[in-house]
Amino acid sequence: MDVLNRSSDPARGGPPPAAWRQAAWQALALIVWSTAVALAVNALRPDRIALVGDFSAAARFTAPTGERIDISLEEAEKLFHTRGAVFFDARPAEEYARGHIRGARSLPLQDLDLRFLELTADLELETPLVTYCDGETCTLSHELALFLRDAGFRNARVLVNGWTLWRQAGLPTETGPPGR
């Protein structure tokens, strides 16, 4: 008997058409049941996942107040050249050491409790801050900016995909381990 050429004809060894229909209904019932359970669990969660919304990159970089906190490369470059902002690299220290925006301070999320006070002690709360990491989907810079805002630095902004954009634009970079 050729297994690969079986038909749905019971005389040729395949399952009867009724079995396929039953399997299809069972699969559909399983999908409907799973969806209903998932929606019910989501409704009961205190931190519900939005089922409908704006999931664009711009919307991701919005503060809880609704204010957009992303900054364009052009704005960041202007702040850099006028020394109008302090830049914070949210990537791990190893990545910072391989290269970072010249003068940027390394403040990875996992080091916040150790380095936050040291790296912000000389800053006024009104000081413009620019956080960055690498990749359009990297959330480290966004999380760092929100943390800085919660700590009182209301001018913390995010340069989305900052490290890649900065290098591609040929703007000043340097290498070396985190110092200040």
What does this structure look like?
The protein is elongated. By secondary structure, it is of the alpha/beta class. It has helices at residues 17-44, 57-60, 73-81, 93-98, 112-120, 140-150, 162-168, and strands spanning 86-89, 100-101, 105-106, 129-132, 156-159, 173-174. Helix 6 links the parallel strand 4 (129-132) and strand 5 (156-159).
Give short descriptive properties of this protein.
single chain; 180 residues; alpha/beta; Oxidized Rhodanese, domain 1; 4-stranded parallel sheet; two-stranded antiparallel sheet; 6 strands; 41% helix
Corresponding CATH superfamily of the largest domain? Rhodanese-like domain
What is the rounded distance between the termini? 75 Å
What's the domain count? 2
Unreliable residue stretches: none
Beta-strand segment tally: 6
Mean pLDDT score, rounded? 88
Give the helix tally.
Answer: 7
CATH topology tier name of the largest domain: Oxidized Rhodanese, domain 1
Across the major sheet, the strand order is 3-1-4-5
Overall geometric form: elongated
Integer-rounded radius of gyration: 26 Å
Report on the biggest sheet: 4 strands, parallel
Structural class: alpha/beta
CATH class wording of the largest domain = Alpha Beta
- How much of the sequence is in beta strands? 5-15%
- What is the quaternary state of this protein? single chain
Order of helices and strands: HHHEHEEHEHEHE
The CATH architecture of the largest domain can be named as 3-Layer(aba) Sandwich
Task: Give helix % range.
Answer: 40-55%
